Amino acid sequence: MNGGGDDDEVVAASADASPPLQWRFSQVFGERSAGEEVQPVDMISAIEFDHSGDHLATGDRGGRVVLFERSDAKHSSGARRDLEETDYPVRHPEFCYKTEFQSHDPAFDYLKSLEIEEKINKIRWCQTANGALFLLSTNDKIIKYWKVQDKKIKKICDINANPSGAVGNGTVANGVPDANISSLRLPVVTSHESSPVAKCRRVYPHAHDYHINSISNNSDGETFISADDLRINLWNLEISNQSFNIVDVKPEKMEDLSEVITAAEFHPTHCNMLAYSSSKGSIRLIDLRQSALCDSHSKLFEEPDAGGSKSFFTEIIASVSDIKFAKEGRYLLSRDYMTLKLWDINMDSGPLSTFQVHEYLKPKLCDLYENDSIFDKFECCISGNGLRAATGSYSNLFRVFGVSPGSTETATLEASRNPTRRHVPVPSRPPRLGGMAGRGSESAAGVDGNSNNALDYTTKLLHLAWHPNENLIACAAGNSLYMYCA
Amino acid sequence: MSMTDEPLYPIAVLIDELKNDDIQLRLNSIRRLSTIARALGEERTRKELIPFLSENNDDDDEVLLAMAEELGVFIPYVGGVEHAHVLLPPLETLSTVEETCVREKAVESLCRVGSQMKESDLVEHFIPLVKRLAAGEWFTARVSACGVFHIAYPSAPDTVKTELRSIYSQLCQDDMPMVRRAAATNLGKFAATIESAHLKTDVMSMFDDLTQDDQDSVRLLAVEGCAALGKLLEPQDCVAHILPVIVNFSQDKSWRVRYMVANQLYELCEAVGPEPTRTELVPAYVRLLRDNEAEVRIAAAGKVTKFCRILNPELAIQHILPCVKELSTDSSQHVRSALASVIMGMAPVLGKDATIEHLLPIFLSLLKDEFPDVRLNIISKLDQVNQVIGIDLLSQSLLPAIVELAEDRHWRVRLAIIEYIPLLASQLGVGFFDDKLGALCMQWLQDKVQSIREAAANNVKRLAEEFGPEWAMQHIVPQVLEMINNPHYLYRMTILRAVSLLAPVMGSEITCSKLLPVVMTAAKDRVPNIKFNVAKVLQSLIPIVDQSVVEKTIRPGLVELSEDPDVDVRFFANQALQSIDNVMMSS
């Protein structure tokens, strides 16, 4: 019966230039067996593909970073993509576990009497060099720069000094058996296998009074930013003891505080541009060339004031939880509590399109506020070709939308081995009409509530990432990493 | 046998520790690589040690950095210049690692080795290395390549020279911004080795590429290249090619680029010569002084004196001075501070009349700035103005401001003023000093902040040095000694400190007659801290006064203190007594 719903969607979207994708389960890591209790420290809190898509990193609440490596033959040729589009069975990217390391440990700030959680908030990949992988990871306060490299396991033989002699008082007989210079030999190193070793190269501490919510590296390959609730700092990767404050929204009196920074990201190609979002639902684009302190934005993106009814929750749900630039940097994706929005950075009058993620929750905002779920920060991601975007919801569901002009493609998937197992019935008509679609969903959700599929606010899919050049989504459901391909 | 045994064992250990698990031991071995090489001899160093190092290059960065450094001075150990090329392979791998400081050190060592190599060896070994690095798969190799061209180029045959130039020009257009940055950084060095015929064509086109780069970080390094390139070109070529670029850069969209221009403009002026400076660069500089980004104004303001020096006074007064006036009331304290740190230097450039007319009001307004750094920067350069406008005018107009600062709220400002008092005193002369500043010096001895009191005590000593014991007897010593009666022990301690500093300057007689009695009285103080400081002071007085005085006054005093109930007092008293004994023994 689930298949039926699927077919409806296909029919509805079949007029599109690119046919809707059929999402299939690909892989799972750390799957939870039935009845197994999820340890809080194992909850995944960050996911990120590297630029090539050959590596995937996840961070968890326990401060660990786990790396996965693509194990299938890389297929980058255009021909392969053509095949995919004509829907031939193709091999999809497969990943295997590579290594893991403890990136952050719990710490205590004695000056402020604050515990600093080890939870990894964000991971960003840096430029690869000499076959070594580099990444930045951050918790609430401290950013670290990691190098992961295959190190050969070495065995050293051909030692000059007899070890026993070295410990003893160094009598000649013991030390060097055949004592003349020609007998001195350099150690011979034989290496057998190699294994990945992670090494912390730099720590960037003490730059944030508030919790870090984003890090993002610059296309110039030498700088990155870190953003907390009120400030954005600019760093040089090589210099860990100084950073420059480029945005400071802290008002003179904290009582005047009305807006905080929720996410920040560098433009993918223009080294001087970056965007940051706020709790009031606006996104600001700033140009680092204009001045050293970029408190004044060059562009402001806001939903035009609809003038409609405002409720207590209007402002809370307007808060942007994540922003992502599309690959070329012209389009910008943003997620707030109820919607996913696509912006054209050349058009600041309003979003190009708005997608309702879980409209059926609208009547339940009060409950969601009561149990704090309304403050959940859902991430969003956009495909490498910029045609589709995905974002998460409750009950471990995530939704994929076609964002290219005219596309009506939508899909709702569950992070499980059978992603189409159950559905929150979502109307198959284009969802971008906003408010109008709400009514239908509401009743649908009611139906849903009657069945076994009651929405579960505790299983939320916050973190997900889209492979940079394949249709592959990696998403975190609790402690498990699920991957879906199409 | 035993002759070689002794040094052999430590060397064997050193060699083994090249591969020890403990990084500290490996580091130690690498640092003593020359010892190992000497032991092995030149041939085995070439055939075994160097290949060994080439193979074992996946060590920790600290070890690699040390290795890169050692190899740079390793030519003598491999058998001299004719074998220098064996050092290239290990340095080549080191120059491709991902840690920047290791790469930079390896490139430095490559250059050092390369610059000693014979021309034929360079062609055979060094130039292929440059080409390999430049074609490297990872950006790290290509970054390093940019830094070694200037060594390879001069010895290359003509055809290879052409090739090297074209390789460098490719590096200037590399995909990776890091490589382009390295190319921009090293362009000046490379250009210096290129024949002038190619300078105008090949090098200028590379330069053009870099100046039009999308990445701010590349463009701003290209600015740095401007000055270096400009100095290589004939003045007229420089005006034709470099000047427009500079003028363009001074209006770049990116403030960081403009900031670089502001920092470099002075050198650029030297490169283009005086006439174009007047016509083209003065307007550019004025624009930078009025830039809307404070960082740019800071950089520009900091160069104002240097810039004025290469202009004639009229131009400076006409164009630069109005900007300086604006900057003195700039909204950014850092701009004012940068201006204050250099503006005094403008006085000699402008001459007396212009200084009095134009600069003095600016000095005065900066002296009253609300930001202490600004005020301090002015005061620290007062002597420069003194030479131009003379002491009378200076004291009339500036002294009130200085007196005001002497009572500044910020103790760091007061501290800075105190440090300049001896200098001021020497310039103002005794008469003037007595009137205005004498009282202040006494006041500081009773400052609330310990650092100020400490500095004040030191100041009293320096004044005594400056004006002599006689003057000090009249104007300092009585006032200082009076303060020993202060009810607060911390202030009394300051006086003890001042006494111990004054004593060597005042000489034996005054010390015995005036200072010593005061100290002896203080030995009866009720506060132990005063008493053990008395012990310390007495100890310091021992070498100054006569032995008879030591025996008659100091020793009994100390003996009494050594029986004090307080342990610290006893300790320092005994120490002082001991040093009396030591002096007696030696004499």
Automatic annotation (TrEMBL), chain A:
It comes from the Eukaryota. One of its GO terms (molecular function) is protein phosphatase regulator activity. Residues 420-449 are annotated as: Disordered. InterPro entries: PP2A_PR55 (IPR000009), PP2A_PR55_CS (IPR018067), WD40/YVTN_repeat-like_dom_sf (IPR015943), WD40_repeat_dom_sf (IPR036322), WD40_rpt (IPR001680). Keywords: Repeat, WD repeat. GO terms for cellular component: protein phosphatase type 2A complex. PROSITE patterns: PR55_2. SUPFAM superfamilies: WD40 repeat-like. Pfam families: WD40. The B regulatory subunit may modulate substrate selectivity and catalytic activity, and may also direct the localization of the catalytic enzyme to a particular subcellular compartment. Belongs to the phosphatase 2A regulatory subunit B family. This is Serine/threonine-protein phosphatase 2A 55 kDa regulatory subunit B.
Automatic annotation (TrEMBL), chain B:
Residues 276-351 form the Phosphatase PP2A regulatory subunit A/Splicing factor 3B subunit 1-like HEAT repeat domain. GO terms for molecular function: protein phosphatase regulator activity. One of its GO terms (cellular component) is cytosol. It holds the Pfam family HEAT. HEAT repeats lie at residues 10-48, 87-125, 164-202, 203-241, 242-280, 281-319, 320-358, 359-397, 398-436, 437-475, 476-514, 515-553, 554-587. Gene3D superfamilies: Leucine-rich Repeat Variant. InterPro entries: ARM-like, ARM-type_fold, HEAT, HEAT_type_2, PP2A/SF3B1-like_HEAT, PP2A_Regulatory_Subunit_A. Keywords: Repeat. Belongs to the phosphatase 2A regulatory subunit A family. This is Phosphatase PP2A regulatory subunit A/Splicing factor 3B subunit 1-like HEAT repeat domain-containing protein.
